[in-house]
Amino acid sequence: MNGDEQSAAMAPLRCCGIEGTEDMARWLWNRQFAAVASDNIAVEAMPPIIDGVERPPTEFGECDLIYDLVSSG
């Protein structure tokens, strides 16, 4: 790939991850996860997929729930 092709391929922010919903946060909490880690740009899937619907990357909605859960002291 040349530089333009690389930029175009990287432009849509997409990566796999867990669902950033309250149900997922409860599932992690109830199973007493001590840590959540990922080698992605985020732990949650990007763009956010909520109730099976892909949301725009700018509409995070509930998606920061997982971050809040695992980063709170």
UniProtKB/TrEMBL annotation:
UniProt GO MF annotations: arylformamidase activity
InterPro entries on file: KFase_sf
Superkingdom of the source species: Eukaryota
Gene Ontology biological-process entries: L-tryptophan catabolic process to kynurenine
Name of the protein this chain belongs to: Unnamed protein product
